[in-house]
Structures are given as structure tokens and as C-alpha cells.
Amino acid sequence: MFNYFQDLADRQLSGATLTSQDALAVLESTDAQLLDVVAAASRLRRAYFDNSVKVNYLVNLKSGLCPEDCTYCSQRLGSAAQILKYTWLKPEEALAQAASGIAAGASRVCLVASGKGPTDRDVERVAGMVDGLKDQHPDVEVCACLGILKDGQAERLKASGVDAYNHNLNTSEARYQDICSTHEFSDRVRTVEHAKSAGLSPCSGLIVGMGESNEDLVDAVFALRELDSDSIPVNFLMPFDGTPLEGTWLLTPAQCVRILALVRFACPAAEIRMAGGREMHLRSLQPLALNIANSLFLGDYLTSEGQPGQADLDMIADAGFTVLGQGAPPQSAGASMHDAGASPGAPVAPGALPAIRRRGAGTTVAPNA
Hints:
Layout: H1 4-13, H2 20-27, H3 34-49, E1 52-62, H4 91-103, E2 108-113, H5 120-136, E3 141-145, H6 153-160, E4 164-166, H7 176-179, H8 185-197, E5 201-203, E6 206-208, H9 214-227, E7 231-236, H10 253-266, E8 271-274, H11 278-281, H12 286-289, E9 295-297, H13 309-318, E10 322-323
Parallel strand pairs: 1-2, 1-9, 1-10, 2-3, 3-4, 4-5, 6-7, 7-8, 8-9
């Protein structure tokens, strides 16, 4: 019996390029077809990544106080979100935070700082942190996310030991002016291309649930395909109170799965990460989504809390996957730090507000790792 999505997987495995018609068919598939979509996308995921899951760990080096006006961001200019705000972490604190994630199984550490882009002094500061991190953990990948880069900065980061650079496109070019007025879509594309030309692995993704149409989603994903992004984080809007998109709840768990499947069909060989907002939007479908995505962030995000780190690791193991680079499943150091009365990894209630991060970087409380 002919199965459209299995046929689509066959074509992608044979080297075909996903068309807009096929992309829309994935996004517009019915609930009755959802498991067919997952099964077909899973064939691509396993062809390139088998049953491994890459665990990434975020370290927020500088939080809040950003001069940009991105509507989705809790760190934006004029944000009233009650997030942690602090200037640059000291190198020793940044390394300690990174070490917590590495001990819990992270094979990539993502060093992130708010702002439009770094000064040369900022780049030197991060380069020093990377040098220390690589000295202690030589096999760990480092991804930097510092904003729009100037001439020479990508090359300096590469020379310091940075492996990858993240700068998300976030949405389609046609919609970009609706979510930000302080820089342009082309600035983001240029930074990713600059990073690539310096020998850094390009990491670029999107944020979904901001009111975009299916056609906008397809355009954004195809732009990422055109950039040949090695790693594609898919973020699901966290509508912080105090931002222009507060109260915006447009996604269902099933649609989030379809969006991940679209990215997998369009970019079969890319590392696809179910990133920020997965707990509140995928909810109980997170384990199912691991059949499509092969990567996630462990524990908390930049300004919000994720599910307990141990719950992430348990979810990976329970779904039949293994943490990349690990033998026996690692134990999260943060498992004992969580309220014993809470249900680890319990799905977030629909419409629940993002939990503001009050632990880890910039605090005296142990991180969720």
C-alpha cells in the first residue's frame, strides 16, 4: 500500500531536494497521519545519526540588557520580564557552569551572551574562556553565540578553539521586519556566512509559534537549507510576560512534531535540536519527537528553567536512545537539587508561563545539570 510520507523519505534518502509542495504536505498532515510522518522522518534521522542523541549545555555569559528589540526575547530592549540580569561572568564561573553540563553528558557547550554583537574586547574575553575550557575538556565542542560579528572576529574565535557559531535566522525573510526593527534578516545571514568562511561549523535555526504561516515556515527552513547549517535548533516560542508576544499560544504538541519533521525532511543530514520551549509545547510528545530530532539542550535555557536535567537523561534512555559519546547513561548532578515532591519531567500544563531561571549562571544556586 502506497504511503506518501514513506515515499517522501525514500526520495530524500536518494538525494532528492524537498519541494514546497511536499513541505506543506508534512505541515498540513492530519492527526491520523502523524505517526506515519514520524516513522518516515525517523528513517532519515536513523540513517544519519542511528539512535544517538547529542546533549548540549547552555552557559549564559551575560544576561539581559540587550539593545535590540526582538519581540520574542525576554532580554530585549524595554522588556519587563523579570529575568536575571547580569554582566559578563568571570572566567572561573563560566568554566564551572560548563563543567556541570559536561559531567552530565554534554558533548557541546554553548557560550551565549546578550547584545547585538561583541566588541573585540568581548571576543578576547570569550577566547580566554574557551582556552581554559579546552584545556580542561579537550574533547568537548564549543559553540559561541555572541550576535552579529564584525570583520576578523570569527577568525579570532576559531583560532581560540571555538568549533561552531550560532546565529539563528528565526523566521522567514518576508516576516523578519515583523519581529525585529533594529537589524535585518540579511545581517543574520551574513554572520552565518562569515562564521562558515572562518571555518566554524554553522549553527542556525528558528523560532516557531510567533504567528507565522505554514508558507513562512517553509521559507525559513529552506533558507536554513540554503545556508547549509550543520546544526538547526528549533525553538518553540516561550511567551514571557513583559514582552510583545506575551500570551501568544499558537502551537499544539502535534504541530510541533510536524515542524520538526519538516526540518528533518528538508535537511536530512543536519543535527536537529528540539530546543527552547520544548517542555511547554511538545509536552508529553517529547520522547516521540526524539525519533525526529537527534539533539537537545540539557536542563535550563538562557532565562528560563527547563525540566530537571536527570529527567532529560531518563527520557533519552526510556525512549531507547543513547547519549552521544556515552556508555552507560550518565547521572545528572542536578537530580538531587529538585523538589522531591515534584514529578521529574512531568509535562508542562498548556498555557503555563515560562519559569524564570533562578539558578545556575549568575546566581549562587547550583545549576540544573
